[in-house]
Every structure is written in structure tokens, then in C-alpha cells.
Fold each of these.
Amino acid sequence: MTKTLKTTAIAIALAGSTALGMATAYAADTVVTFDPGTVQYGYTDGYWSRDHVWHSWDNPKYVETYRARPGAVYHEWRHDRDPDMGWVEIHR
């Protein structure tokens, strides 16, 4: 009976360490980074990416990072105030 209890305890400990290792590996794979070069236009509620996809700002620091970028186009209003939802085609 004692041997079975020790075996069970070892199995539980190993399973827990494996689960922790898997969770750590998963967390490392889900790191999200922000590239201000992908932003076409910024608004207080989010931004349009250059491939015409709407994104909310995931982090308030991203707003300041984008606004500090040379040539940034940022508007101090929500994108949905305009009928075109804030998307304007720019030909450079």
C-alpha cells in the first residue's frame, strides 16, 4: 500500500511539472508585438492597418508609439464618426 501511494505521488508530481512546462511553452509562443509600420491611420478607438483591417489598440502604449512615428496619421476622434469609417485611400 505504501509503495502504491509513493508511486501515485510521483506520478502526480510529474504530471504537474509537465503541465507547467507546457503552459510556459505556450505562453512563450503567444507573445504579441506591435509594429507601428503596419498602421495606415490611427484613431482614439483603434487603427486601420495598411491591409485595410480594423484593429483596436491592444495597449495604450501602442497609441503613443504610433503617434511618435514620423509621418503618423492620427485623429483625435473615433473612426466611426465618418461615413467611410475613417478609411481614406491614399495614393503615394
Amino acid sequence: MSAFLDMGGYAAFVWPAYLVTLAVLVLNIIWARKSLARALQAARRRTAAAGEDS
């Protein structure tokens, strides 16, 4: 197991790369969900405003 974690001496480069990749993926999901929530809220506002104009 320690040989796997050592990554043939490249662990200092491999594990941070995995961490950065994971962080980017998590942030991408968070940002996408926030963007979707903002878009839905704006669409609801536009729909409500259009209903009041009619």
C-alpha cells in the first residue's frame, strides 16, 4: 500500500494534482448549481412580470 501511495517517488506531484482536479470539479458543480438557481429565479421574475402585463 505504501508503494502505491508513494507513486514511485512522484507522490509530491501526483497527489496535489489529484487534489486540484477534485477541487475544480467540486467548484464547477457548486457554480453550476448557483447559476441554475439564478437563471430559474430570473425566469420566474420575467414570467410573473409578463403575467401582470397581460
Amino acid sequence: MRAFYVRLRSVFGEICVLKILLLIAIGFVVLAVIRSYQRSLNKPSAPAKRETIVEDMVKCAHCGVNLPRSEAIYSGGDFFCTPEHKQLGKK
């Protein structure tokens, strides 16, 4: 009879260890889910889509650099990238 109780205690001991390991595993999963959720709250939302503005490019008559028309200096029918190149004129 004593051997039966020793064996029974051994079986229940193994079950308790398995239950503890299972609870630890569940705890890690819950912790991972909570951390993932917290990280998602801290992320900035996706930026709003900006409308792409297409602009003509022009070439500097002095050095040949391409630049947007809005940034170019127009003089005498030619475009220049800087006031210095405007003064130097066409190459």
C-alpha cells in the first residue's frame, strides 16, 4: 500500500511540475501579446499621402545643371541656377 502512495505522489508531483511549466509558458505568451500591443500604440500612424507635384526641369545655360523651373532664374530667354551664373552668361 505504501508503494502505491509513493507512486501516486510521484505522479501528482509530475503533474504539478507540468502545470507550473504550462502556467509559465502562458505567462510568456500573455507578456509577448501585451508588449506587442504597447509597441503598436507607440508607432506613429501612417503619414497622409501627399499629392505628387510634377514640375518641369530646365537646364542652366552656363553649367548645364538640371533644376526645377520654379528654382531657376530666367533671363534673356535662358535659365540659370544661380545669380553668379546669370552674370557670367551663356557658355
